[in-house]
Amino acid sequence: MKINIERDSKVPLYVQIKNQIRDMIYSKIIPKDYVLPSERELGKSLDVNRSTVVKSYEKLKEEGLISSQVGKGTYVIYSDEDISNVKSNEFPKSLFWDEIYSESSKNNYNTVINEIMNIHDNGKTISFAGGIPSPDLFPKEEFNKIQKNLLKSKVEEIFSHSPVTGHKGLKKEIKKLMLGREVRASIKEIMVTSGSQQGLDVIVRTFVNPNDIILVEEPTFFGAIELFKSLGAKVIGVPMDKCGIRIDILEYLIKKHKPKFIYVIPNFHNPTGITMSLERRYEIIKISGKYGIPIIEDDPYGELLYEGDALPPLKALDRFNYVLYLSSFSKVISLGLRVGWIVAPERVINKLSMFKQLTDLHVNTLSQNMICEFLREGYYEKYIKKIRIEYALKRDLMIKELEKSFKEIEIYKPQGGFYLWCRFEKKIDIKVLLKKSITNGVNFVSGNFFTVKDKEETRFIRLNFTYPKKEEIIIGINRLRKSLDEMIET
């Protein structure tokens, strides 16, 4: 429904809107039973006050053209057809989409990921919310060069299809990358995915049935929690300490619930930033083998080590193929490229590919080729060294600004990754703080999103330090302080 507003016209805005809707009704562009946008939606799309649209709709009702009904909205009732002799069931009724959603989609999953991905919609807000790499550090020159060369020499290949499990050349480069992480895998044990989130989705859809139990670290990545729940799995949290998941409680819960999987993020955990100790890694591998429970190892941040020694992933310690390993280039190079991978036994990869082909056939061929060349040309190692230095500086700057402005916050300093996990010493309403912060032009993610029971109260917030510029970190922390002061004052 297209409406043009002439703001310089002497005709009142509500009359312009009313007249154009009336003309569309008379000309049957919008037919009988057509549901009009709500007053709020139409007002927003036309950039006018809701009251203006309300007045337009009232005039149309007075003319007998539209009506309103709870549950149905505002709809067209005018028709110039003679329908006195026609049975009502011969006319199609308005379709109420809410009534035909699947049972799974009727659940109210939180929209935090969608909200984070919309950060570009408002350039005035400083975002500490998203798990997004710095756009300022993206290797523009290298990818420019790669793209030009590909367009000259491999134009047919880069715009053609790709195998479901991924571009062979890229899989060879990932194989080399995994060797650097002490994991030996053949290219038949690697599948390229649209980021590690798709990898997780494919694994869960392949293996998990409704009511299966999945044990996760508590807290953990909200995208994993929502995915598991959407497929009907029961998610149970296992507490963490400074060394990672608590093995004593994990073993107790395994005995009690006989879970289908254990899901963990050993390196620079999201959201806490904790790195699972080497001893704890050996213990969880031992527990996995003892009870025959496979592990999903999510490792999107493993390359982003700023201090200390690099520890081998669980997959490197996995002698009997109990670990399904996920990683991604999204957190390191660019979120927009959407390329990740799975390392798993060949027979598992074959099964996963059957499910993957039902969703996207294959990962974007151009992205696969570009990343393949980025790795092949040796750009990747240089780029990793550069961003490690820059992200460490940003991490330290954010910690410095928090310590300067907040005496009531405990901060865990991570050895790598993207996030600071901050705890308020005194109980405060995090939802109110978030609301005030957004009003003041800064956002973050509340800690309750990372718990299995997201309605629980929390004293935690997660702050991303990789995405904002250094000057934005300083301004953003000041805005966060201002928001807390406003809460205290009220």
Could you explain how this protein is built, in words?
There is one protein chain. The protein has helices at residues 13-26, 39-46, 50-62, 112-117, 140-153, 155-158, 168-180, 195-207, 222-230, 247-257, 278-291, 314-317, 346-356, 365-376, 379-405, 430-439, 470-489; strands at 66-69, 73-76, 126-127, 190-193, 213-218, 234-241, 244-245, 261-264, 295-298, 323-328, 340-343, 409-412, 419-424, 442-443, 445-446, 460-464. The chain contains 17 helices and 16 strands. It is 41% helix and 14% strand. The protein has 3 domains: 13-95, Orthogonal Bundle (Arc Repressor Mutant, subunit A), CATH 1.10.10.10; 112-136 and 382-489, Aspartate Aminotransferase, domain 1 (Alpha-Beta Complex); 140-378, Type I PLP-dependent aspartate aminotransferase-like (Major domain) (Aspartate Aminotransferase, domain 2). The strands form 4 sheets. It has an 8-stranded mixed sheet with strand order 4-11-10-9-8-5-6-7, sandwiched between helices. A 4-stranded antiparallel sheet has the order 12-13-16-15, covered by helices on one side. A two-stranded antiparallel sheet has the order 1-2. By secondary structure, the chain is α/β, with parallel strands linked by helices. One of its GO terms (molecular function) is transaminase activity. Keywords: Aminotransferase, DNA-binding, Pyridoxal phosphate, Transcription, Transcription regulation, Transferase. It comes from Clostridium oceanicum. In the C-terminal section; belongs to the class-I pyridoxal-phosphate-dependent aminotransferase family.
